[in-house]
Amino acid sequence: MTKPISPKANPAKHHPTAIPEAPPQDDIYARVTAKILADLENGDLTWRKPWNSDHLAGQVMRPLRWNDIPYTGINTLILWNTASEKGFTSPYWMTFKQATDMKANVCKGEKGTQIVYADKFTKEEEDVNGERKSSQIPFLKSYTVFNAAQIDRLPDAFYKIPEPVVIHQQERHPKLEHYFAQTKADIYTGSKACYTQSTDRIQMPPFESFETAMRYYAVLAHEVTHWTRHPLRLNRDFGRKQYGDEGYAKEELVAELGACFLAADLGFEPMPEEHHAAYIQSWLQGLQDDKRLIFTAASHAQKAVEYIHTLQHS
């Protein structure tokens, strides 16, 4: 059934010259970070929860707006986590107004999920010479969305469970092979999985050495995310000096999230590498020290995945 076109509602609409009424940014950063910290302390990787959920296993994809546009960055993590905890199988999320615009209604007693909207407002000030100058000030605003499972009378298409992608356990997957080949990354077979910036090459163990094809593509997605940090690509640098330092841990968090975003976009499970568990303590410490770290890492991961997608050609 085709979904009706609904008036596009912008829940974060604001007057361009007014300071928006929104919760203090620190509150938003602190709230999201506290939830992820709690999960990590329990040994739970928030962004991997959906793949471990009985309701969502094998059917994970990006959370979608009412108009099929995927959510990105930190909102992907927030909505994946809520879907897993609440057992929601629909990928669709929308505001109360977007639901009512489609003649649907949020079920009585249902609680929405707060996500964030990044924008800028214009601030005008006089400089020392008495001239008025305007500047763009970035801000975060939170707003509430509901999963389709919390809404009655939506068109049937919103309630359909996505079909899982079937990957044969031991055979290379043609579409995934083509996708990674299109990046033109220099990938060669060696003894371990790693990206070396000085040579700009990705080393991968033999395909046959992986327990399943899924594990191979999950590790490759992680290394290709690292590959995007090269100065000639996204020039991502966290001040890495040596193995295991703070900059190294931040880059690993970006690659971890990037692999999960890519897996969701391409339809396979992002199996973790064994040694990634060692970074959890670093991420815990980093999140405790910097409430914005998970937002920054998710943003870098999103940019990496979008860059990889732009390398695809028909």
TrEMBL record:
MF annotations from Gene Ontology: single-stranded DNA binding
InterPro entries: Antirestriction_ArdC, ArdC_N, MPTase-PolyVal
Segments of this protein annotated with the region Disordered: 1-24
N-terminal domain residues: 27-146
Highest taxon of the lineage: Bacteria
TM helices/strands, residue ranges: none
Domain Polyvalent protein metallopeptidase: 175-300
Name this polypeptide is given: DUF1738 domain-containing protein
Species of origin: Spirosoma profusum
